[in-house]
Amino acid sequence: MSPLRIYRIDAFTTVRGEGNPAGVVTDARGLSAAQMQAIAAELGHSETAFVLPPRGDDHDVHVRFFSPTTEVPVCGHATVGAHFALALEGGARGMRRQLTGAGVQQVETREDADGIVVRIRQNAPTFDAPLGDELVRELADALGLAFDELDPRGPVQFVSTGHGKLMVPIRSRERLLALRPDMTRLAALGERSGGRGYFVFTLDAQAGDDALTHGRMFAPGIGIEEDPVTGNANGPMGAWLVKHGLLAARDAEARFRARQRNGAGRGGFVDVAVTVEDGEPTAVAIEGRAVLGERVER
Predict the structure, then answer these.
(1) Could you list the active site residues?
(2) Running DSSP on this structure, what letter comes out for residue 268?
(3) What is the residue-averaged pLDDT of the chain?
(4) Which residues of 116-141 are buried (b: 16+ CB within 10 A; e: fewer)?
(5) Are 26 and 85 a contacting pair, CB within 8 Å?
(6) Residue 27 to residue 5: CA distance in whole angstroms
(7) In Å, what is the CA distance from 192 to each residue of 22, 92, 178, 195, 284?
(8) What sign for the dihedral angle of Cα 48, 50, 55, 60?
(9) Which of 47, 65, 70, 229 would be 12's cystine partner, CB 3.0–4.6 Å?
């Protein structure tokens, strides 16, 4: 077996040491699932992407994603990292069809004056029924929020474009930044709430802000207490905003920038585009930039 080429890529940022770090193994052929899991655990990033040859004619590349504790179907920032790393190795720009545990996605890699951009066409959004008030109150308490601090303009609801999150809208950006959730209680709520990832966000933007939304994402149930920037949270959030009349479309598309930052101060941004037909969100795409952290062979 050839030496493994292992990268750390800071995704959803243009600044090294910011964004969300992902591990990437650009040629993982020959590795077993157990070996991939062991590498992901050793690297310790929220997700590591393993690039594999295609398994059929309906896709160009097969990518598997592992958190430190389990395989996950798809991951936005690790997808950005994987295609950024392939571009660094001289991989073709343009469109690739990527097979993941969530199906086949279209991923476009292009270059502009500011560097490499990766655009991911996520799956069509799906919406679960909103959570009932009793469970919402329990969730709010685990997050350290009062019930009336939630934003009443939309429900607490699980939304997915491949690997979904529970959308938790709140009124105040100040409260968002101050959150100190009870991670044990959040992990225990995962089965009852319908999702193991909780995306808490607000439309409480400041004057001159380049972003429509600010968010934080907690997923202790899969070994990630808090994620710095999450493509599979901000994409579904865009669909949620359109669904509940909080984001208007122009020429059948709604576009915005979403920012996310964890409690330690690390974060970045995601550019989101939602296709809208007859007032309903029908497709979601996200765009991200990235920076090389390090590259090793072993």
Answers:
(1) 47
(2) E
(3) 95
(4) bbbbbbbbebebeeebeeeebebbbe
(5) yes
(6) 7
(7) 29, 44, 26, 8, 27
(8) positive
(9) 229
